Amino acid sequence: MITPPYLKAGDKVGILSTARKVDAADLKNALELLKNWGLEAVLGSSIGAEQDQYAGSDSLRRDDLQLMLNDTSIKAIWCAKGGYGTVRIIDDLDFYKFVKYPKWIVGYSDVTVLHSHLNKMGFETLHAAMCKGIEDNSAFAKKSLQDALFGKTIHYNVDKHYLSRIGVGAGEMAGGNISILYSLCGSPSAITTDGKILFIEDLDEYLYHVDRMMMNLKRNGLLKNLTGLVVGGLTKMHDNSVPFGKNAKEIVLDAVAEYDYPVCFDFPAGHLDDNRALILGRKATLEVTESGVKLNFAES
Questions:
Q1: What tens digit of pLDDT does each residue of 56-114 get?
Q2: pTM tops 0.90, yes or no
Q3: CATH classification of 12-149 is 3.40.50.10740, yes or no?
Q4: Second label for 287, Cα 20 to 30 Å away, from 46, 62, 105, 260?
Q5: Active site residue 271
Q6: How would CATH label the architecture of 155-297?
Q7: Catalytic position from the list 172, 201, 205, 287
Q8: Which of 109, 116, 144, 179 is catalytic?
Q9: Is 205 among the catalytic positions?
């Protein structure tokens, strides 16, 4: 995997939305954070733009991202908000300039489209908190984003959930939002997972649909040859009037019951206030013991 250059004081960070609309006023705290880190924010044309629920038309969002991909003075692109819409523009992007001059792509949720696509092209990306609502994220989450962007080694030690499965595994980290990974199956952006540690998270889904998505990932062979599974927030899940019978964690555990790699539940990443940075495409080691969980990323 190719690691984009780390940031240094004075670098420019592009801010845009590839999906849902967002107002510039909602980014005040993100802009202040970048300033405190010694970075210069550059707002894209999608910020403040609106077409239905999107941050402007597909062509506007595509052109905004393309401009920032091509601009060599911009050293990272921080997505302002998720929602839905990135998949509508991914096939019309030209990554020729990005391949020559890679930069960090930062975000989560719908940004999983970009993560999966670029990881498949051989580039590391950063699964981390987005601009809107950054003030609600924990100090740990914000510090992890800063550390990842500036090239500090990322190590995590977290509590073990009682459903977590003990073991040790190592490999590149891949993944993101379950709904997006599920929707990308069969496309040029589809994730590859053999020999990797898979990270998954999601928000606002019905339990039967979580099961459907996990079965789809399993039938596509994406759960079979993992070296580990890290499960982040499974947030605000819903049940029907006739109960499904399992909660979201139990659904995930059932999908991987026949495999023997370590599984970590409740990792602090995803649609949570403690959304810690994960370097997708980077080699990592996952160790789950009775006393806790360690996730250590290799140095680039």
A1: 999 999 999 999 999 999 999 999 999 999 999 999 999 999 999 999 999 999 999 99
A2: yes
A3: yes
A4: 105
A5: yes
A6: 3-Layer(bba) Sandwich (3.50)
A7: 201
A8: 109
A9: no
